[in-house]
Design goal:
Strand order of the largest sheet: 1-2-3-4
Distance between the termini: 55 Å
Largest sheet: 4 strands, parallel
Helix content: 40-55%
CATH architecture of one domain: 3-Layer(aba) Sandwich
CATH topology of one domain: Rossmann fold
CATH superfamily of one domain: Alpha/Beta hydrolase fold, catalytic domain
Strand content: 5-15%
Number of helices: 6
Oligomer: single chain
Number of strands: 4
Order of helices and strands: HEHEHEHEHH
Length: about 180
Amino acid sequence: MHLVEEKNFLTFIEEELVPYIDNTYPTEPYKMLIGHSFGGLFVMDALLDKPELFNSYISIDPSMWWDDKKLLSAYKNTNLNDEKYNNKSLYLGIANTLEKGMDTISVRKEKSQMAKHINSVFETRDLLKKSKNSQILFESKYYENDTHNSAPLITTYDGMLFIFEFYQFNIDYSDLIN
């Protein structure tokens, strides 16, 4: 995936897809973008580049290593306290892509491709956690028992619980039968 193609796709979503959906179906103004792997990278880029397009974002094990961590560098050089990130939510799911015998501490010293992947995601998480003045409501979780391929389902679920935390309420079984 080239950055130009990614920008073209985001433009397509903004100028063609979302208007088509809004004009064809009954929709609400609240919009969420969810992506996995390179799709997760796209989610991270969309949040950085055009945060106004979506209210919330779920990035599942994104390929932040891509292009020598170019997007991660962009995040490092961005003022996340900017008003355009106000009221934006991001949930970052991190799959267990550790090589056999590795743990989350020892992997930080490794240089293999798999280590580059998980280290770049950890680095992204750490950056967003440490951004004290960030306007982005951020949460992440490392899924120790999930692989790159099994993480999307649980990450989407947990991400939606995080994003819609305000909407959760407790209903007892007795409330349903009365």
